[in-house]
Amino acid sequence: MSLNIETTSDKPNFINYFSDPLTLPQYANVVLTKTNLSVPIIVSPLVRMPLISVANRVHTAIQVGIDGVVGNITWTDLYTAANWYFVNNYGLDRIDTAAKFFSGTYEFVPNQQIVLNCIDEGAALGTATSNKMKVGFNQILAKAINDKFLFYNVEPAPTYKKAEGVDISFTNRITTPLIDAGGVNNITGFATDYNDDILTELGLNIAYDSASITATTPTDFNWSAASSLTNWTRTGADIITSAVAGVNVAFATQHGTPFSIDPNGGWVGTVPTLAGGGTMAYGLSLSGEFGGWDNNFLSGGGTTCDDYINLIDIGWKFKANANGTTCAQIIDSKTDNAAYTGAAATLPQIPITEPPHLVHIATAGEKFFIHIKRGAIVNGTTEFIFSLFSGTAAILETTDNLIYVCKRTFAGGSLRPTLVALSDNVLGNILSGWNYIPITTQSLEQGDYFQTTPYGGTSNRSVYLEPKYTGLVAAPTDIIMNFWRSWGLISYENAVIPTADQRRYFTNKSTGTHLLRTFKNPVNILNTSFNVNYIIGQNDISKIWSVDDTGVELIMNQDFTVSNLPAVLHVSIDNLDLKNFNGTLLGGAAPTGGNTGQTGQRPSVDRTIGTIPLPTNTIIASDNYLLQYEPLNLIYRPINNPISFTINQLQVGIFYYDFLTNIRQNLNAIEGICNLELNIKQGFTPKKPQNNLLPY
């Protein structure tokens, strides 16, 4: 006959007490007949930053294109972006050297979003706190791109798939502090947020941002080319003064007097002084660069500022009111007006002023600005928005007065306006303090792109990301390729980069407009050769994550993780003395300098009464995996009890063996109730040895 025992618990390691003691027969045998439990398994793919030598860090890692502007992101740029998180106390990892970052061991954990509530840098222990995160590659890439592009703001926008899996507890603190370069224990926090959702897409939010161009240091503008000045006198480095020789007209272009304002947030400004009286004006002509035909604009024989004011499309007009106070008026484009001279009808162009009266009383030293930024791009046309400001500062600031806004629409997208300055033929009118934001190389690239690309830059390369290998010295290109492939950014299979018409650009993943665009691209993490860590039967974050030996990097605790899933879980009765058969771990002697193939001893059936298979092929995401198993063939384990004895408890343990180290790892948590059914029966009495060996 046999004895059936059923054990239940909410823990994977427990003592099961019996109300009535059980008597085990001599030479008893025990077997696990049925199991029912749910085990939390965290699947954590790891993507390592490749080992990059010092010589290779200066080379381009990935090329990024946004609306014709091309930015080459080097490996050093990626480290600079990562280090920004570290030094500004946003990142948990204290990686303060490029050597650590490119050591080949630094790991990203795409599926684990970790935020710790930490002690602030320099704050007294236990006082000020802040949230710090385990920085992901998406954040680093977005920061590197943002730093490279002048008038785009790039933010990370990864896409995660909601995981229905493991609940992580926060009951225990991470007590090992992270240590900064000065040896100060500045992070001792506990987990406040842990998200094990699955990363599905690399994402970027790309917003047009002209403010960064606007805020750059302006260039002083000097009317140095005499050919661009008619009657004006250059009386200082950045001062022109009117004369009475005739109407005063000045042009500044890229060809004559070098002038080319940036259309993505650039501005020009000057201080008017109406000392001589009459009328004075300045602004932009949107007709393009006049080049060498400036004087042709003066052939009309005009004698006043108003005779030539139709040259200005957007600008300022200055005139004294009846009280002699200088006032400002906006010039906004031109219109054709029918007129009759007595001999023939004409269509003179008359500037439109908004409103038609003088609108602003200028103070002494007040500066008047014209600002340009790009607007919407629709059907091959580009909007440009012009804003007119006045202020007292030498440069355009956000605190300056916004007076007027208008917009113009052009075919293509290139804009190179001409600067025009006018005055009546009076002595002493002054325009001083000239400065402006010159056009940048990136704006030139964008202008050429919009001018030549069909449909106003909405081609299949409006946004693209392309890894590069040019110039790398003895680099492990297969490892680098796997790195980019894990983020879904390589469409070809080897390091020989295909020609432009053969490769696939990652542009069809972007949506939105020129002003706000979202880029998405599926990742490929689980299909690369990078490591995957598995945490089995563990949901305490303080046990999962720890700090490396140097105290600078948050890493997975290798005591609770395995890189290969075990085939089975073992069930043991730890307070019963089962017969022990020791086996040798295959692999032979350990080679010099490593532990691959190490030799070790494992008790093959020591205290193990049965095994539970793991569905290794189906474990691809973090979840609570239900394990229900009933073996077809019962294999009993013999107990070393030559006489019967009575027990009132069983100490049960569920564990697995680490495949690489052969170390027993106990499960620390399960989901719900663990149910185990055992069967105990009397075994055969062993025969007495037939030999002459006798005990002493």
Q: How many DSSP E strands?
A: 48
Q: Helix segment count? A: 8
Mean pLDDT: 80
Low-pLDDT runs:
124-128, 290-295, 335-341, 455-460, 500-508, 584-601
What is the approximate shape? rod-shaped
Number of domains in the coordinates? 3
Radius of gyration: 39 Å
Query: How is the biggest beta sheet arranged?
Result: 8 strands, antiparallel
**Strand percent estimate:** 35-45%
Percent helix, as a range, is under 10%
Straight-line N-to-C gap: 38 Å
Structural class: mainly beta
Describe the structure.
With 696 residues, the protein is mostly beta strands. The chain folds into 3 domains: 2-45 and 533-682, Jelly Rolls (Sandwich); 47-212 and 458-527, no CATH class; 217-436, Jelly Rolls, CATH 2.60.120. Helices cover 9% and strands 41% of the residues. The protein has 8 helices and 48 strands. Strands 16, 18, 19, 21, 29, 30, 31 and 33 form an 8-stranded antiparallel β-sheet that branches. Strands 17, 20, 22, 23, 24, 27, 28 and 32 form an 8-stranded antiparallel β-sheet that branches. Helix 1 (75-87) crosses helix 3 (137-148). The longest helix has 13 residues, at 75-87. It starts with a strand and ends in a 14-residue tail after the last strand. Residues 124-128, 290-295, 335-341, 455-460, 500-508 and 584-601 have low confidence and may be disordered.
